[in-house]
Amino acid sequence: AQERYTSIRNKPAETLCGTIIDLHMNAGLMADLPSLENSGAEGVGLFRTELQFLIRNKMPQRAELSELYARVIDAAHGKHVVFRTLDIGSDKVLPYMKVIEEPNPALGWRAIRIAMDRPGVLRMQVQALLRAAAGRPLSVMFPFIAQREEFTAARAEIDKALEREHILGHPVPIELKIGAMLETPSLAFAPDSFYDEVDFLSIGGNDLKQFFFAADRENELVRRRYDTLNVSFLTFLEQIVARCDASNTPLSFCGEDAGRPIEAACFAAIGLRAMSMRPASIGPVKSILRRTDLTELRDVIHQASADGLQSVRPRVMDYLREKL
Ligand code: PEP
Ligand code: MG
C-alpha cells in the first residue's frame, strides 16, 4: 500500500489553500525507525517508551536505555524525535511491578501519577534520555498530565537531572523541549500559566476521547459508540487549538484518529497544524490533505454544527465525495 504514495512521499502535506500540515510518525521500537524514511514522516511525534520496560522481566538499567535512545536518535538522522516518558498502569502492567487491584484502572494509578509517587524510574529514564541526546536536541513529553502542578513537578525532575549532569561534567542536549500530552479534559481548562510553561502539547486523542465521552477505549460495547467527528468533541478540540494559538504553544495530535484520513482532514480544518500517526497512515493522510481546501471544509463543519447535527461526518463525506 505504501507504494501508492511514493510519488508524494517527499512532497509536503500542503492543502489546496496552501497550508502545510506537519505529519510525524508514532513509534515504540528501534525496528520502527526505518519507516521514517519510507513514509516521508517529518519526524517521530510520539516515541512510546513502554515497550522496553514491558518486554523485560526486570527493570531495565539506565545504561541500556541510554544506549537504545541514542540509537533511536541516530536512526532518525537529524529528524526530530519526541520521547514520551513511561506510560504504564491501566492497560500496561509491568511484569516485575506489584499489581495493584484497582476498580477503575483507566482512571487510576497510572503514567505520571506513578512517576510522581515512585520518582526513581522517572529519574533513571530522564538521565538515560539526557545522556543519549548529549550534544543533540532533545524533546521529552509527559503522559497523562491532569493539572499544572504535575507538569511543574515532572519538569523539575528534568532540571535536577540536568544540574547533576553539569556537576558531573557530562555533556547535555544542545536544546531541550519539554511538553505534555493533553489527554485529560481538565488540561484544556488549565490556567494560562500552564500553556505558557509547556514547550509544546500533544493531544492524546485515544485517552482524551475516552474521558470526554466517558467511554472505555478497551470496551467493545462502547468504544465505537461515539464518533470522533461528533460536534461536541470537535468543538472541544477547536477550543484547545484556540488556547494554544493564543499562547503560541505548538500543538499536535497523536492519537489513532490522526491516522484516519477523514478525521485528519477535519482536524486540519479546525486548525491543527501537526499530527503524528502510524507510518502506514502518512501516505493516505497526506494524499487527502493535498486535495482539500481547509477553509471550505471548515465551513462544512461549522454549518453542520449550526444545523444541530450530532456528527459532522455525513456532511463531510458528502462534501469530500463531491470534491475528491
Ligand atoms: C493517546 O492516548 O491518544 C496516546 C497517543 O497515548 P496511548 O495510546 O499510548 O495511551
Ligand atoms: Mg494515552
TrEMBL record:
<comment type="similarity">
    <text>Belongs to the PEP-utilizing enzyme family.</text>
</comment>
<protein>
    <recommendedName>
        <fullName>phosphoenolpyruvate--protein phosphotransferase</fullName>
    </recommendedName>
</protein>
